[in-house]
Amino acid sequence: MDSLDPTLLRLLIEEARDYAIHALSCDGIVTTWNTGAERMHGYRAAEVLGASAARFFTPEDISAGRLQRALGLALAQGRAQEESWRVRRDGSRFWAESVLSALRDDAGRPVGLSLLTRDLTARRGEEQRQEELAQEQAARAAAEALAAELRATEERYRQANLQLSAVVEGVTDGITMQDPSGRIVFANRVAAQLLGASGGGVVGAVVSDALIDRFEIMDPSGAPLPL
């Protein structure tokens, strides 16, 4: 197969405006620059040719040696691909997919690398929006499920109280409940009658010494309750 004409190859690279396509030396120095790279990164060729590609990386990635690791991987394995943040000339960031490929001579010796970069900021933004939407929907579903469970619990509690009230009101013994201060918080119909008042009049009253004298108060085992 005949090799591609160098002039045609240059035209193809220059017209690839949606991709930054340029060559690097083995140590990461920019050696070529296309129109797509200028549009994406904001640098003119004269500003970057001969400069390190590290200027396209974030400060944190530079400190972490990300470029050096990518160069080493591409030279060792022939190719290195990743998605990460890149920095434009004006300091703004964009999410990029980059592919580093090793360039070798006829003897197989590395002579440089090609770097293809694609701006995926819009796609990443849409993915994040979809992820946030999914999280919101999951949170809403969880909240609705919790609310339904609470309603069911409240209904079970209400039904249990109704059943308990029916049982308590149906017995022939007077039953009261008091808080720690001795104030009556519940009295069934029989207890209200024994105390000489309606149920509504008994609730909230404090058990007086007079009432204690009138009744024998015992604990559930039948032993006298110390007062």
* Computed CA radius of gyration, to the nearest angstrom: 41 Å
User: Looking at the structure, what is the overall shape?
Assistant: rod-shaped
The share of residues in helices is 40-55%
User: Mind summarizing the main beta sheet?
Assistant: 4 strands, antiparallel
Spell out the helices and strands N to C: HEHHHHEEEHEEHHH
> What is the spatial order of strands in the main beta sheet?
1-4-3-2
Distance between the termini: 109 Å
Low-confidence runs:
none
Mean pLDDT: 81
The number of distinct helices, counting runs of at least 4 residues, comes to 9
Q: β content, as a range?
A: 15-25%
Q: What is the tally of beta strands?
A: 6
Helix/strand/pairing class, anyone? alpha+beta
Characterize the quaternary organization of these chains: single chain
